Amino acid sequence: MSNKILIIADYLNGELIQSTARAVTCAQQMSPTAIDVLVLCDDGANIAAQAAKLEGVTKVLQADNDANKHPTAAALAPQIAAAAKAGEYSHVLGPNTTFGKDLMPRVAAKLGVAMVTDIMAVHSAHEFDRPIYAGNAIITVKAPEDQTLVASVRCASYPAAAEGGNAEIETTSFDAEIPSHTRFVNLEQAKSDRPDLQTAGKVISGGRGVGSEENFKIIYDFADKIGAGVGASRAAVDAGFVPNDMQVGQTGKIISPELYMCFGISGAIQHLAGIKDAGTIVAINKDEEAPIFEVADIGLVGDLFEIIPELDKAVS
């Protein structure tokens, strides 16, 4: 069976999101005969052009439809299922982001197959590693080879595919019944000049030990000084110190920065699951028994309100 792979493009505000390029890298490890990217938009020319530049991409399918102006999973899933059948794809991959978690199970249901979630390592085209028990264990799963494989990719486990490709762009359409029971109302998103948490090369996070929403300013200021994204533990989010879109961990965002610095975070299993792919982990905590020190490359026992000003001076 040929491994013809279809990747669903993830985009926002007319720009391709890096999770798509990471999914391409994952697909390249499955001995593919072709890697196609599907762009579902109302006017996807710019997004398709960006996808065509990714190395390893064979073809980009641009399917413009007014129903995709504000894409919802309910509207996209029937079109993806139709594309998978029409192109006789063996694999349909999406990112394990908020977008993919909502979308890919619907695609699997439309195709009448089970799905593999959160692929973090590829052994073969149908055998993968994925995390279980809040990331505390890794399991190897094998999917049937006689049916379409629908899967989501753990983006933190793969580098983004480089640019330099020149794939063909094909405009197309699909005969799919798009439901009307789900309708777009509006989009609310946080606006920040800081690097995106899931793609930043450096991330600074704060936990319950920061103490308050006002105290988080010391985290923001230090992050801005070194050009880092800002994250938080679930405890900090639950305490109301920061909004939930900053949460890092199994139930938040899975990240893989080159440098991860955490202040006042004890290191619950769920948080560690979100940072396991980070390059260098630096932990600062007053409790020398904090679990975070077991995984940190560099650990410092001390008061973050004394240490951050010293770090601030060192990088000035």
UniProtKB/TrEMBL annotation:
GO biological process terms on file: fatty acid beta-oxidation using acyl-CoA dehydrogenase
Transport as UniProt keyword: yes
Electron transfer flavoprotein alpha/beta-subunit N-terminal domain sequence ranges: 5-188
InterPro entries: DHS-like_NAD/FAD-binding_dom (IPR029035), ETF_a/b_N (IPR014730), ETF_a/FixB (IPR001308), ETF_alpha_N (IPR033947), ETF_asu_C (IPR014731), Rossmann-like_a/b/a_fold (IPR014729)
Ligase as UniProt keyword: no
Family membership noted in the UniProt record: Belongs to the ETF alpha-subunit/FixB family.
Described function: The electron transfer flavoprotein serves as a specific electron acceptor for other dehydrogenases. It transfers the electrons to the main respiratory chain via ETF-ubiquinone oxidoreductase (ETF dehydrogenase).
Name recorded for this polypeptide: Electron transfer flavoprotein subunit alpha
UniProt gene name: etfA
